[in-house]
Design brief:
The complex is a heterodimer of chains A (442) and B (364). Chain A is an alpha/beta fold. Chain A folds into three domains: 85 residues, Four Helix Bundle (Hemerythrin (Met), subunit A) (Up-down Bundle), CATH 1.20.120.140; 191 residues, 3-Layer(aba) Sandwich (Rossmann fold); 150 residues, Signal recognition particle, SRP54 subunit, M-domain (434 Repressor (Amino-terminal Domain), Orthogonal Bundle), CATH 1.10.260.30. Chain A is built from 20 helices and eight strands. In chain A, helix 2 runs antiparallel to helix 3, helix 3 runs antiparallel to helix 4 and helix 5 runs parallel beside helix 6. The radius of gyration of chain A is 25 Å and the shape is flat. Chain B is an alpha/beta fold and 364 residues long. Chain B folds into two domains: 148 residues, SRP54, nucleotide-binding domain (Four Helix Bundle (Hemerythrin (Met), subunit A)), CATH 1.20.120; 205 residues, P-loop containing nucleotide triphosphate hydrolases (Rossmann fold, 3-Layer(aba) Sandwich). Chain B is built from 14 helices and ten strands. The longest helix of chain B is centred in the N-terminal third of the chain and has 21 residues. About 16% of the residues of chain B have low confidence. Classes of the chains: A alpha/beta (442), B alpha/beta (364). Chains A and B meet through helix 2, helix 6 and helix 9 of A and helix 4, helix 9 and helix 12 of B.
Chain lengths: 442, 364
């Protein structure tokens, strides 16, 4: 479903490609597809309507600047409006500060607190964490365990029922010793008035410099309402989006940002303590729309894939060798996953089996090492690799023969996928022309 | 429950009714006044203030009528004498509005599309005597659309009764949806209904998870089977089942670590758990506030390890109820419970008929 949406949006954009004058019907269609993409990414319905109105109006009224095609013009407007909606990325100062974490139950506050502690610790600051979650069983154990792993002190008492008392006790003590203090709180939602009152009190006595709202990427239309009430209660000045490593697209966070007039500060995208990223609007937009990165679509493709990096034509003719795959794996570091590269190519609704992409970054690394142990003839023609060669390669790369077979299997899947793609493209000639066009315009 | 959706649906219903009535050139039927029903009346809720705003009955309806009288007067010509012949145009606007209402209430896009399509198919071209109430027609259509989507409920007690002991229930879901809390609540619910329960602490990954389930279980007086953090969850749950067999315990509740459906390794681990403990019931836990992603992950979980029933948690956060509709539609499996708060009693058996009646008023 995700892919379909991205595709229909891409189709709509493609329709604009050949046009010299802006066509109302084409813009209408684009806006409608955009609406659907945003709605299915859980962006607030009202926000979507405002946005699409703005885009429509600007696309129809503004003259494209000289030398800019209609397609680029409209895309630029879409991009600008989305960026405007997203607000500026929230500020993170690297200095002494107190941060109060707020959010719904199960949005990932505790995990994110530990990740933040790690972030500031790596920036060379002394960090202390206070566990003010006195309700959920195991909350203190969880935070303590996570903090112990990174040697960050954690203040709390699982037997103390008053969150306020913990903050009142812990804060002065930690303020003397540490520069950054992060207060983790219990999950609450906006209708639980006594809990809202509690966080208002914690906010008051802690004089927190930042009050960050943690939002689950999968949160739906409810995000606006919850964010609004949290904002009313304690004045949210930053939003943290968690669980971006799933398939949710985080539109709820966008609603929260619009509601609190703040910005997204960090993005949590994994289960280990290092998986916290600073917010990058471009990447976020691309995910939101389910299509390749709008701006980077143009820029990044140019710098990362020069013609020799990936010989698209050779690939499509089926002459896809291990060498190509090696280059691809290298390009991945620069450009992001293969799927994204593919989504940047104007291939329309081409279906590529999902297991092709199902390859983790550690595997990528291993594959590269294995290929480094191969001879040039083997790289050019993988079919010569027999079992004795597999043995040799495995020994050279320090892996098991099974790993080498795994790589070859992956290569074969890729090859088949690309061959299939050629067949589906409606004739080779057409396909190649499209590829060439891609090479030029991007 | 689902107050907000209910309120909106009633507005829409009023609008449909008035549109159709005007198409027939007669006076609109006044909207049927709904009494604000409190589903949770039976459920004691000691620690929390009462639920949100009571439903307000339709306000948009009358405005709509004033807006387009001429259009509908024209429509009169097309209407056969004393019969309503519904055309696509008549229902277009209210359907669009219904679509927005559903989307605003977190019903996922594909599911919304389907409900709308079903409504359109059923309504357009319908002929009805004025005598037969238009209201009934609309409500029946919406009801059948929603009922079709929500499917049948499942009574856990009956399910357990009809099974060989111990009945093994496995809980799955993504991170932070409330699996552990739900396990505790279900444990409490079953205890209240006279079943003996043992809990397997299968979340060996998240820091503090074992302590969490342990504390819950101790409070409820339920035995927990646990290993150390980082142990193989299959082994823990296998032991839990063995314990239940040895001690003639009725139900094994198996907690698991939250995992994302796009992590092949973790899904394989879950598959292994399923193989090892052979659950009678795989319960997928998700939150009622989840948006469109609810559909995607419900589908993935269903494909990877199967799902027999669904529990929706956090339904007390000003519940929109859309996720219930989306998930039920996607998985095609009954919803077992709604989680409605932080207390052990805050769990409510889910009955689709009751919910639809809640949303649309009782079947008369």
């Amino acid at each position: 479903m995700l892919d379909n949406l991205g595709t229909s949006l891409k189709d709509a954009v493609k329709k604009l490609a050949g046009k010299t004058v802006i066509d109302r019907a084409a813009v209408d269609e684009l806006v409608r597809d955009l609406q659907r993409a945003l709605l299915s990414a859980d962006v607030n319905v009202k926000l979507v309507m405002q946005l699409s109105q703005a885009i429509k109006q600007r696309a129809l009224e503004e003259e494209p600047p000289k030398g800019m095609g209609v397609r680029e013009h409209v895309l630029r407007i879409v991009y600008q409006e989305l960026v405007r909606m997203m607000g500026t990325p929230g500020e993170v100062t690297l200095g002494p500060q107190t941060i109060l974490m707020a959010g719904l139950q199960g949005s990932g506050k505790t995990t994110t607190t530990a990740k933040l502690a790690r972030y500031f610790q790596r920036k060379g600051l002394r960090v202390g964490v206070i566990c003010a979650d006195t309700f959920r069983p195991g909350a203190y154990d969880q935070l303590k365990t996570l903090c112990d792993r990174i040697s960050v002190p954690c203040f709390g008492d699982p037997n103390e029922p008053e969150a306020l008392r913990i903050v009142r006790e812990g804060l002065p003590r930690f303020r003397k010793l540490y520069e950054v203090i992060i207060i983790d709180t219990q999950g609450r939602h906006a209708l639980e008035e006594n809990l809202i009152e509690e966080i208002v009190n914690i906010n008051e006595i802690s004089h927190a410099d930042h009050r960050w709202l943690v939002i689950d990427a999968a949160l739906g239309q409810q995000a606006s309402e919850q964010a609004r009430r949290f904002h009313e209660a304690i004045g949210i000045d930053g939003v943290l989006v968690t669980k971006m490593d799933g398939t949710a697209r985080g539109g709820g966070a966008l609603s929260a940002v619009a509601e609190t007039q703040s910005g997204i500060v960090f993005i949590g995208s994994g289960e280990t303590i290092e998986d916290l990223e600073r917010f990058d609007p471009d990447g976020f937009i691309s995910r939101l729309l389910g299509m390749g990165d709008l701006r980077a679509l143009v820029e990044r493709a140019e710098e990362a894939v020069s013609a020799e990096d990936i010989d698209v034509n050779a690939m499509l003719k089926g002459r896809f060798t291990l060498r190509d795959m090696y280059k691809q794996l290298e390009a991945l570091n620069k450009m992001g996953p293969l799927k994204q590269i593919m989504s940047m190519l104007p291939l329309g609704g081409m279906q590529i089996p999902d297991d092709t992409y199902d390859i983790t970054s550690t595997k990528m690394q291993r594959y590269k090492v294995i290929m480094d142990s191969m001879t040039p003839p083997e790289l050019d023609d993988p079919s010569v690799i027999g079992s004795s060669r597999i043995q040799r390669i495995a020994r050279g790369a320090g892996v098991t023969p099974d790993d080498v077979r795994d790589l070859i299997k992956y290569y074969k899947i890729m090859q088949r996928a690309l061959k299939g793609m050629r067949g589906m493209g409606g004739g080779k000639f057409n396909m190649q022309r499209m590829m060439k066009k891609f090479g030029r315009t991007q | 429950m689902f107050d907000s959706l209910k309120k909106k649906l009633q507005n829409i219903r009023t609008k449909f009714t008035s549109n159709i009535e005007e198409a027939a050139g007669t006076e609109p039927v006044p909207p049927v006044a709904e009494e604000p029903e409190e589903v949770q009346a039976a459920e004691p809720e000691p620690s929390r203030p009462p639920q949100p705003e009571p439903p307000v009955s339709g306000e948009e309806g009358p405005e709509e009528e004033r807006e387009k009288p001429t259009f509908f007067n024209k429509m009169k010509v097309l209407v056969r004498e004393r019969e309503i012949f519904l055309r696509e145009k008549d229902v277009e606007e209210p359907l669009l509005e219904l679509e927005m209402v559903l989307l605003e209430n977190d019903v996922a896009l594909p599911v919304t599309d389907e409900i709308i399509a079903r409504m359109r198919r059923d309504l357009v071209g319908q002929q009805r005597k004025i005598g037969s109430s238009v209201d009934d027609l609309v409500v029946a259509t919406l009801r059948s659309a929603l009922c079709g989507v929500l499917g049948e409920g499942l009574d856990l007690r009956d399910f357990i009764e009809g099974r060989e002991r111990p009945v093994k229930i496995l809980f799955t879901g993504v991170n932070g949806t409330g699996k552990t809390t739900t396990v505790a609540k279900v444990g409490h619910y079953l205890q209240k209904n006279g079943f003996s329960v043992v809990i397997g602490a299968g979340d060996t990954f998240r820091a503090g998870a074992i302590e969490q389930i342990r504390t819950h279980a101790d409070r409820l007086g339920i035995k927990t089977i646990q290993h150390q953090a980082g142990a193989d969850p299959s082994a823990v749950l296998f032991d839990a089942v063995q314990y239940a067999k040895a001690h003639e315990i009725d139900v094994v509740l198996a907690d698991t670590a939250g995992r994302f459906h796009n992590r092949a390794n973790l899904m394989n681990q879950l598959e292994k758990i399923r193989r090892v403990m052979k659950p009678d019931l795989v319960v997928y836990v998700d939150e009622a506030v989840a948006g469109n992603d609810a559909v995607i992950r419900a589908d993935e979980f269903n494909r990877a390890v199967g799902t027999d029933a669904v529990v929706l948690t956090k339904a007390d956060m000003d519940p929109k109820g859309g996720a219930a509709i989306s998930v039920a539609h996607t998985v095609g499996k009954p919803i077992l419970f709604l989680g409605t708060g932080q207390g052990y009693d805050d769990i409510m058996p889910f009955s689709p008929r009751v919910v639809v009646n809640e949303l649309l008023g009782d079947e008369s």
